[in-house]
Amino acid sequence: MKQKSFVHLLHPRETIELVVLIGSGLLIVFLGQHFGAGIALLLTWAIVVWAAVKTVYYFGETLWHLVQATASDLPYHRFLLLMAYSMAEVTLSYAIDFFCLLQIDRTNFSGIDENLSGATLMFECLYFSVLNFSFFGDGDT
User: Fold this and answer.
1) Is there a contact between 28 and 100 (Cβ–Cβ < 8 Å)?
2) How far is residue 106's CA from residue 102's CA, in Å, rounded to a whole number?
3) Can you say whether the dihedral through the CA atoms of 49, 50, 52, 57 is positive or negative?
4) Residues 94, 129: Cα–Cα separation, whole Å
5) Per the confidence metrics, is the pTM higher than 0.70?
6) pLDDT beyond 80 at 88
7) Residue 11: its pLDDT value, please?
C-alpha cells in the first residue's frame, strides 16, 4: 500500500481556512481602527462568536483527521505531524483573536504592557494562546 504524504492528508480547505483566519483578523483590526469606539462592542462580540464557531469547527476537524488517520493506518510519526499542525492552527487562530481584541480595546486583557505594538504584541498574544492551549499558563498573569 502506498503511503500518503503529510501534504496529501491536508486538503485545500486548510489553505482556505488560513486565508479566512488571517483575513478576518485583519478586517476586524481595520474596522476597529477606522470606526473607533462606536463599533468596538460590536466587533468584540463578533470575535467572541467567531471564536465559538471556530471552536466547534476545530473540534469536528480534529475528529475527522483522527478518523481518517485511523482508517488509513497512518504511521505514528505522520499522525504526530498532523496533530502538531492542528494544534498550531488552533493556537495561531486564538492568538489572532487575542490580538484583535487588544486592537479594539486595550482593556480587554490585564497585565499586558500598553507600550507593546505590532509584532511584539502579536508575539505576546501567541505566547498567551500557547499557554492557554497547553494549560502551562494556568494562573500565569
Assistant:
1) yes
2) 5
3) positive
4) 6
5) yes
6) yes
7) 63
Cα–Cα distance for residue pair 26/112, rounded to 1 Å: 21
Task: Judge whether 93 and 21 are in contact, CB under 8 Å.
Answer: yes
DSSP, residue by residue, 9-42: HS-HHHHHHHHHHHHHHHHHHHHHHHHGGGGHHH
User: What residue segments make up the domains of the chain, in order of their start?
Assistant: 18-134
The pLDDT value given to residue 1: 46
Let me know if 93 is exposed, middle or buried by CB neighbors in 10 A (0-12, 13-18, 19+).
buried
Rounded distance between C-alpha atoms, residue 39 and residue 54, angstroms:
22
Taking alpha carbons only, the member of 34, 35, 56, 53 closest to residue 45 is: 53
C-alpha cell at 17: 481556512
Query: In whole angstroms, what separates CA 63 from the centre of its chain?
Result: 17
Determine contact, residues 25/96, Cβ cutoff 8 Å.
yes
The tens digit of pLDDT for each residue in 6-64 reads 445 556 666 677 677 777 777 777 776 677 667 778 888 888 888 888 888 888 888 88
| C-alpha cell of residue 4 | 500518503
Residue 46 backbone zone (phi > 0: left; psi -120 to 50: alpha; other: beta): alpha
